[in-house]
Amino acid sequence: MTNLPEGFLWGAATAGHQVEGNNTDSDIWALENTEGSILPERSGDACDSYHRWREDLDIVRDLGLNSYRFGIEWARIEPEPGRFSLAELAHYRRIVEGCLERGLTPVVTLHHFTSPAWFRAAGGWTGPDGVGLFRRYVRQARAVLDGVPWVCTVNEPNMLAMMANMFRQGERREAVAGAMPPPDQETAEALVAAHHAASEELSDLPGTATGWTVANQNFQAVDGADALAEEWAYTREDQFLDAAKDDAFVGVQAYTRVVVGPEGPREPEPGVRRTITGWEFHPQALEGAVRHTAERTGGVPVLVTENGIATSSDEERIEYTTGALAGLGRAMADGVDVRGYLHWSLLDNYEWGSWAPTFGLVGVDRKTFARTVKPSGRWYGELARGGELPS
Ligand code: BGC
């Protein structure tokens, strides 16, 4: 049995654009609503969490969890360059307070894939003063963050940098690292600078730990492809972990693995079990990810900010999560400093161009927005209440 540290977070995660609905001033909304878009399905009303966040928080609390990760939307807070909406800042502040009132530790993400449409039009991260514009937004976002112990600056900068390349090519590929183009290096470097700028802006907030969340892809070499796998890992992951070396924590997000042979990343063997997203069913991903992250960053405390599975079988969700948590326990027993586990996702939500992959502990009726807790949600809540990781 693994002794969990005092205050270990057992939570669930969401992201603004994926659950709120009508994030109309954002770049991804614009992309979704373009004729012939590379994102075939639209987010639309999403899960209507913009209005139903209280219900979402009640569910998290009633399940027996003690933490909720959610994102605030830059496009709502700054719909036009330099014009900040006090009402939207107050909206997000109410969610933070809603968490605190329910005894839930808020984990707040400042940027989760979406930017204001005007930011992208102005050149985005690599445009003139892209980093400065993000810094200006973060300065305003401080109004939301009083008493928030965990702040994630940028979600999956490595995916963002890879997507920058992918969008430039005008095609949508499944977000399996192995199937994606290399990151746009200029974007990668701008994101590192943006992360550091944001951390600096927040450094005097008492009791707030700031970090970023990196998609861990578990690159595994086979048939002597060690050097190639290392190169893949460096460009697509490790350079982003290196940028977290001085942070108060690093967010680990892991779902599957990428096997790299001498010819490059390999598709899973025929017959290998896959999830709705096409990824290999590989619950050991989390253990590999936390071990790698701790080693690469030189022991920066880890918060698992995402881990889960897109499946229509709730038993399979329980099986996957049990395996992932057992692996987490093994890593912790070996001394990896892990502060919490936030399951992806609380809700079946908008999966960037598709509604098909269901990652939720809770189902959502697409017409009425009614939430239904799945057996996996109840199972996970029981586990959290028990306070022990499965072995
Ligand atoms: C992202 C989430 C996404 C999840 C599953 C992560 O890459 O942060 O927004 O829904 O993986 O694909």
TrEMBL record:
Species name: Nocardiopsis terrae
This protein's UniProt keywords: Glycosidase, Hydrolase
UniProt-listed Gene3D superfamilies: Glycosidases
EC class (word): hydrolase
Pfam families: Glyco_hydro_1
EC number: 3.2.1.21
InterPro entries: GH, Glyco_hydro_1
Any one GO molecular-function label of the UniProt entry: beta-glucosidase activity
Family listed: Belongs to the glycosyl hydrolase 1 family.
UniProt-listed PANTHER family: GLYCOSYL HYDROLASE (PTHR10353), LP05116P (PTHR10353:SF36)
Protein name: Beta-glucosidase
